Amino acid sequence: MTEVAVLTPAADDGTYGSHWPRVLERLAAALSFSGLTARPTAWPDHAEDASALLEFPLVLPLLAWGYHQNHSHWLRATRTWAEAGVRIANPASVLAWNSDKTYLGRLEHQGVPIPPTVWTMGVTDAEVHAAFDRFGTDTVIVKPTVSGGAWKTLKVSRGQPLTGAPEGSVMIQPFLPDLATTGELSLLFFGGRLSHAVLKTAAPGDFRIQSQFGGLYRTIEAPPPAALALADQVLGAIDEDLLYGRIDMVEHEDRWLLMEAELIEPDFYLSEAPDRGRLFAEAAAARAAA
Q1: Backbone dihedral angles phi then psi of residue 121, each to the nearest 5 degrees
Q2: Tens-digit pLDDT profile for the chain (290 aa)?
Q3: What share of the chain is helix, strand, coil (3-state, %, to 5)?
Q4: How far apart are alpha carbons 97 and 238 in whole angstroms?
Q5: 3-state SS class at 89
Q6: Phi, psi of 270 (to 5 degrees)
């Protein structure tokens, strides 16, 4: 058996302590299909010194949760790993830029369709109110560009005061009812190959599709050709040596829009994968052996 490292939250981070070990079990079960064993290690422990990670043929940052709450430390860690030559997948440079959702603006400049977005620093009531007219909507989503799991994400209606606004770099988008009704489609890629597709819908009365908020997931056997085309466009625009990627999108007004390209620590939804993660394991084993 070949041992690979899986980066986890900090040992003293109580936010995720009861949850990440269960996710690690699912990842470890999948990796075992290709003779890999997973050793968990907290990512902050290697932010200044990467020597311990150099022992592994592959480092997977798949449980590096909490980076958005200490973003400067995360960026320092990714520089450390890149400079040391840690065999991390995805590349450390990708882990850095993908942690800030302003990358969506860069992809848009390359022709990738995304929802209309206002980018701002220190969001104000005036900016939010102007966005209602700009987008022609009565509801917008306000969230920090460095976030995770709907952290500090607000749904604001016209006439409602902006309460608890996130600080720093912020994005404002129109609320797309399609997310709450039709749902968000995720396409999972391992080693450049499509593994499976999952449709995520919000619980009644909510707008967040994450499972912790009651979101429901189901496998889509045959993703629409236009959705596949968008995923291919996104991956082509990114043009990085990716071991894995989750491309999240929504269909709005007969057009597929990119919501996020999740390249750091996405949920792979392996329980919905027909092969239960064998393709992921094969890709990881090939990378470890390269």
Answers
A1: -115, 130
A2: 899 999 999 887 767 667 899 999 999 999 999 999 999 999 999 999 999 999 999 999 999 998 998 899 999 999 999 999 999 999 999 999 999 999 999 999 999 999 999 999 989 999 999 999 999 999 999 999 998 777 778 899 998 888 888 889 999 999 988 777 788 999 999 999 999 999 988 766 566 666 665 567 889 999 999 999 999 999 999 999 999 999 999 999 999 999 999 999 999 999 999 999 999 999 999 999 98
A3: 35, 25, 40
A4: 11
A5: coil
A6: -65, -25
CA distance 43 to 88: 12
What is the amino acid identity at position 163? T
* Cα–Cα dist 211/286, whole Å: 31
Would you tell me how many other CB atoms lie within 10 Å of the CB of residue 256?
19
Distance between CA 74 and CA 230 in Å, rounded? 29
Q: Please give the Cα distance from 106 to 48 (Å, whole number).
A: 29
Q: What is the CA radius of gyration of the chain?
A: 19
Tell me, rounded to whole angstroms, the distance of Cα 196 from its chain centroid.
Answer: 16
Per-residue buried b or exposed e for 49-88, using 16+ beta carbons within 10 Å of the residue's own CB: ebeebeebebbbbbbbbbbbbebebbbebbebbbeeebbb
Give first-to-last CA distance, the chain, whole Å.
Answer: 16
Q: Can you read off the two tokens belonging to residue 60?
A: 């997977």
Task: For residue 161, give both structure tokens.
Answer: 């005061």
| Tokens read off for 65 | 């949760």
Alpha-carbon gap, residue 226 to 229, rounded angstroms: 5
